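Treating backbone geometry as a discrete language has practical consequences that deserve illustration. The sequence in question and its structure tokens are set out directly beneath this paragraph.
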Amino acid sequence: MSRRSTTARKRAIARNNKIHPTKKDPAMEELEEQGLDVSNLEDEEDIYRVMNAIKQLPCPLAAKRRFREKLLLKEVKSSSGCCGGSSSNRQNWRKFQIWRKEMSYKLEPWGSWLKNVEGHQGTGVVSYFVFLRWLFFLNLFIFLLIMLFVTIPYIVSANAGYTYRVQGTSISGVNVANEQTCSPLYVVNVSSSAQTLVQDFLQGSGWMEKTAMFYGFYDSQDLTFGMWSYVMPLAYLMTSLVILLLSLITMARYTMHSFRENLEDVNEKHQYCNRVFGGWDFALSEVETAELKHRSLYKDLVGELAEQRHHLARKNMSSNEKCRLYTARFFINFLVFCILVGSGYLIYWVTDWVTSFLAAPDAKTNNDAIIVLLVEFLPSLTITALNGIVPLIFGLVVKAENYTPEFTIKITLIRTVFLRLASLAVLIATIYRIVTCSDKEATCNVGQGSCDELRCWETYVGQNFYKLIVLDFLVKVGVTLGYELPRKILTTKCDAAVCKKVGPAEFDIPKNVLDIVYTQTLCWLGFFYAPLIPALATISFFVLFYLKYLSAMYNTNPPEIPYKASKSNNFFMIVLMIAFFLCCLPVGYTMVKLAPSRGCGPFRIYSYMTVSVDATISNFPDWLQTIVGIFTSGSFIIILLVLLSLIIYYSSSRSGARARMIVMLKEQMIMEGKDKQFLLNRIYELTGEKPGAKKRESRPPPSSGPPPTNLKTVNEVNATNGSVPSDRDDTEMKILALELRPKDDVPESVPYTDPDTSTRKSAETALHREVTPVDWDQVSGDENTNRTKSTVTTTNVAFDF
């Protein structure tokens, strides 16, 4: 009944409006002329629908605002029912999104600092700081995970012994008796002298071994906290796996975000036009910020022009010049390969010599403490020295290869990455040879005879990475404060010719990026053996940000070769992902294949670290063990890999189809632009004046009488002139007939019917005269060659002659 009464009420209102018509609002009439239905606006949903349609109208922004104000003044009832208030909810959600974005911009860490760097050094350097900031938060997140799930539970909980949760139910690979024999033998010598305490802090030995920094501090017993129990071995292993997985996910998301921005920003045809006319931020209100933005745009344009200049020079090279260039590149790459091999052998020799020197029984007693400290740091010093000297050689030889500025940075980064990863790989191989020495005792699995006696080899591995990350941080601080700052002071305050010629140092993007990638690689390699190494990496990145900011703003000049940084963040992340996958190999091999120490660590009772997972699963119900066995079986993994391969193939095929569609649409847009340009040229040839050159003359108000009859058709014009046009002349005369209709006698608005859409429009959007449409399929001649087939209506030639 309510529905019938509502329908009857609407009919009564409609009859009343027909009998007593009300005066419509001019704004509403304009909307109806544009094809929008505004006659029946009852609730907020209708208003919201019309407002969305107004956004798509081809009219000035002021008119859209006027339409919006008129709609907001209309009195309508609020939405009700199950979807009631959806319009207001959408508006509130939109306001919340805007507020969230504004707050994220305001609360962005170091946002204003990055703008200062961008204005002073350019976008290439600011991309380094964005990358550094991202790594800082990544390591902070890793540190919080380890603290919440490993360190804090172990400190605040009490040991409950080796319960069934730790030993499992009827599984092999668990030996508690050996642990009770070997654990008391792991003793650390702690000295009370200040010099020894400092040395132990720098080396991670002595009193540092029994702190939460290293693997040997944690136990394998079951932990209890009130009524809750906590299996430490499983928590340690799962936390490590989650850290690696989350690191991979965050890197993938960051890479995809940067790749999406690159796809949106790429427009090679109009790159300079977009930067000049669309690159300015009109929301800037401060003079200093505007100057920084101006410098940023300037440096970006300089980078683009330098790359275009290089491509032009490459095209103009002769065959002899190309032959000399490729020959030089071949010999330079061979030289780089020899340097990498020599660096790896040097690290291996130094590590082996240090191991044999420290293995002597009287090595520490017959030598001074400083000598012993230097010998223990010798592998780390060698790696750090190679990482500082060899990239300088790479930077010199790459200039002879004549690459683009962007590719110069990429090839230097790749070579330096191989150097640093190769040096770490040699170090890991040397440590692996020491750890897996065959001459060991059976009970505690400790080396004897020619093998090193390592009671806790995991802590020994963690100490090596600890020393590397400490030394790397000290070198970065020393280079910034001990080299770049004095050089800046000398070159600016000293008037000597040598100082002026040397000048301040440049901000080397490849070297600085590789420094932080190297630090992050050490963090990923060492966090399993030294759980609190991410805390050191977080502190290192935090201090390094301010040091590099000081260096970028005051100590160094922008790079001499302008660098286009549109793809820098993406490439930096790809380099980091390569380092990440290489770091996963030794850590994963340790978890699966190496036998853990039996006197320290949370896996001391297991033959392998993964046995802790088997012990936990053995306590599950039988049905749950069956499900876990199915999902971890080889057949399920093979099926999963096949499905992933099919998904990847489908995604790549769809991406390729979309790319081809984009190319086709671009070509179609170009052809449409040529069509319009052809019409403009023809009109200019016929009239002798550029379309739109004359100002629109004032016209009398529209008359209400019939349209004028003193119009001549094309055939009448031809009969008057006594000539019969050809097909080509007929096309020209159809366009020329536009001049024959008097402008003063034509009303302002003459409605017409669009033959394509049958939509009633106003002649104000087209011409002030009627023109017969031209079908290009019927036009012969060269004008119709290589053109898209389209019907030219009056809207194609809407000009004032």
In short: The first helix runs from residue 2 to 19. The two ends are 63 Å apart (CA to CA).
